[in-house]
Amino acid sequence: MRNAAAARLGDKRYVIAGLVDTSGYAADVRAKYEGFFITDSPIKINGSDLTVGAYGFGFTQDGKMQILDLQGNQALSVSTTKDSDLTRPRPLMMSKAADGLRFYNGKDYVTITAKLPRQRQILIYSSLCSLLLVGEISTHGTHSILSRSLSDRHGKSDRTPTDAR
Q1: Are residues 124 and 109 part of one domain?
Q2: What residues does 6 pair with on adjacent strands?
């Protein structure tokens, strides 16, 4: 598609963008509002936080991407990067990159990354702490080490005699 793009971040998290017809609008309005941008989970655009919602967006001639809320107030403004290696730019596209997702308007792009919910960050942190407290490093995988460390901590060991160290 030339005028819309969508990407899935994780299992059930989506970012959707589409261009709107701004012919007949003044140039300053077109620069502010080229399309719609919808995210159903918190994300980061070039490191800046954007909450769940529906927004308008526009790319300016001076290398900025503006995100506007539904009332027309600026929610976010970030600098874009020009991809001079892109051979066939399209009006709007998203592509996977090593550092996240690239959201393009022509050769200009911003990087979108998923923002982990606070509860998920805490879960990851506490899991790592459990592993560090036990001090086990194994090739059996994180899940079995974590299960073992949690069961040991509660006095229930599921190790067999060949497993014990």
Answers
A1: no
A2: 16
Give dist(CA 132, CA 126) in Å, integer. Answer: 10
Rounded to the nearest 10°, the torsion over CA 148, 154, 160, 164 is 70
Given a cut of 50, whether residue 136 has pLDDT beyond it is no
Report the distance separating Cα 153 and Cα 50, nearest Å.
Answer: 40
Q: Is the pLDDT of residue 69 over 70?
A: yes
Which tens digit of pLDDT belongs to each residue from 3-15?
888 998 888 889 9
Instruction: Give yes or no: residues 141 and 75 share one domain.
Output: no
- Do 21 and 83 belong together in one domain? yes
Query: Which amino acid appears at position 52 of this protein?
Result: V
Q: Measured between alpha carbons, how far is 102 from 97 in angstroms, rounded to an integer? A: 6
Query: Per the structure block, which two tokens stand in for 1?
Result: 């598609």
8 and 42 share a domain?
yes
In which domain, by residue range, is 134 found? 118-153
Within this chain, do residues 83 and 22 fall inside the same structural domain, yes or no? yes
Per-position DSSP letters for 80-136, written without gaps between them: -EE-TT-SS--SSEEEEETTEEEEEETTEEEEEEE---HHHHHHHHHHHHHHHHHT-
88 and 124 both lie in a single domain: no
Distances (CA, A) of 157 to 134, 148, 160, 163: 13, 7, 9, 10
